[in-house]
Amino acid sequence: MALPSNTEIMFGGTPDAARLSDAEVSIRFDELMKSIDAAPTRALSKEEIVTSFGAGQAINFQGSQPTTAYEALTKAITPDIAKNLSPDALASVQETLDALKAQTPDLVKDLNLTSPLPTGLVAFDLEAPAKLLAPRPTPLRNRIPRGRGIGTSHRIKVISGYTGTGTGGVGNIHPGIQDTTQNNFAPSGSSNALYYARGPKISYAGYDQTFAYSQFSMSDEVTWSAQYAGQGYQDIRQLSRTSLLYASMLMEERMLLMGRGTQTGFAGAMPAPTGLTATAQTPAAGQTALTGAQGSTPTIYVKVTADAGAFGESAPTAAVSVAVAAGQNVILQLTDSAQALGYNVYVSTGTTDPGDTARHFMLRVPGLNAAGQIVLQGALPTSGKLVPTGDTSAYQAGYDGILPWCMGPQSGYNAKINGAWSSTNPGIELQNAFVSLYNSVKADPDRVLFNGADRKTLSDTLKSGSNTNYQMRITQDEITGVTLGDVAVAVINEVTGKRVEMEVHPWMPQGVAPILSDTLPIPDTQVSNVWQVFNVQDFMGIDWPVTQFAYESSSYWYGTFVCYAPAWNGCISGISYAGQP
């Protein structure tokens, strides 16, 4: 009902009452206006006006501001309204308000970073395209020459020695003669003698070598949904093709370094370790006890494989077991393998052998310790990689890489030091290799490849306090700014005087350092490069016809890897460092 605007009705009382005089009405009106003028006043600042609308902020002259529909309706039910409602009506109103309260989260009036949606009404500052933080170095592939192949294999014939070379198993003969000297010149295999007054005939040694070609391929797939959903952000097909190319090159790099083939002429599967035994002992100085052995009579069960690098490992040994008392660790003894890049140890525990489904990888060691042992210590694993069921070290569609050649039977030098680099005579291990290679075939290597940790530990031997052959001096201008660290970048071959480069290979397994010759220090060998790739078909990319809702691509190449002169190369392995078992 609208309020009356007539001052006589407002201040003159009800129609039943006596009418007031105009003077009395005027006096009452004037008193009302004076009261309004005398009421306390307050001017709100701009900040107070803004914050007064926040949830739970109080407006001084009216109490708290309602922040939800539920609060506003509840505040509207004043005591006067509530007492004039019947109990049933009041209960109905209250029931309605309770139902409204359950919807309060959707009825808030605030707009902020979490309301009305937990993720906020905000844009995403997404930078396109995706960043490719994936390393892809391929130094061997970049360096090794590539030639054109034909047919199904690459073949060479090798003259490995003749009289006087000291190679190929050919012996020496004295060339001195007299007038009466007679030497048999009958054809080889003839039963008849044919003597002439001539100097003795020289001898030859040689062999044929066949390098079978293998096919290689990798593939990728981009679904239509991924391609079309990515529009405006990234070309997914382009990313797929680029990644496929680099993935293929990276896998070829690893094959060039450590691949093993099973076809005739290649190294074949890596032999499994032999002679494995296990013995419990009280930990020696610097060792710790095993923890985690299960069962009332704690027993651990161990299998060991020879590490073949990126593509697998040898078949495992038979399991050996040993009871372990509290505070003990375990010593594994086995026969060292000349071709192993290291050893992988798998363990399980229980009152009985739980089998290979519970035998987990515990550690990899680059070689045995000085006593021909591996020390098991610390916590036993209860999850992770399981022991392989068979050999994964070599492949029918594959070839031998650098490490199998440098550590195989045709290598010119293969030594396992099974320990750290010498700190009393830094680099002596390499000098021993240079001496042996020179004495056998007059090799003069060009470079040594390292794992990063192995070159670091060799560099650290120069700073070791146990040798006095090297000194590091700080000059006057470095007193307030000393540069720490030094690195060995090359070694002088003390036999030939040649500088031999020391290079870190990004995918080299720790503990192995192959010594390589890029060319031969012999004229007229008909060998331009000691190492060479021959491909019937070099790298190519294929986009397959669309046969489903996807774009599919593959890489393909068909070839092999050739080492012309394995005897001019060698390897040092079993390199450990401080802290290794």
TL;DR of this structure?
This protein has 581 residues and is of the alpha+beta class.
Structure, explained:
This protein is an alpha+beta fold and 581 residues long. It has five domains: 1-32, no CATH class; 48-117, no CATH class; 139-258, no CATH class; 274-379, no CATH class; 404-547 and 559-575, no CATH class. Helix content is 21%, strand content 25%. It has helices spanning 7-11, 22-38, 46-51, 69-76, 79-84, 87-102, 139-143, 224-229, 236-258, 402-407, 428-441, 452-460, and strands spanning 58-59, 63-64, 146-148, 153-162, 183-184, 195-196, 204-212, 214-223, 274-281, 290-291, 299-306, 320-323, 329-335, 343-349, 360-365, 373-376, 378-379, 413-419, 447-450, 490-492, 499-504, 512-516, 531-543, 550-563, 570-575. The chain has a six-stranded mixed sheet. A four-stranded mixed sheet has the order 3-23-24-8. The protein has a four-stranded antiparallel sheet with strand order 12-11-14-15, with no helix packed on it.
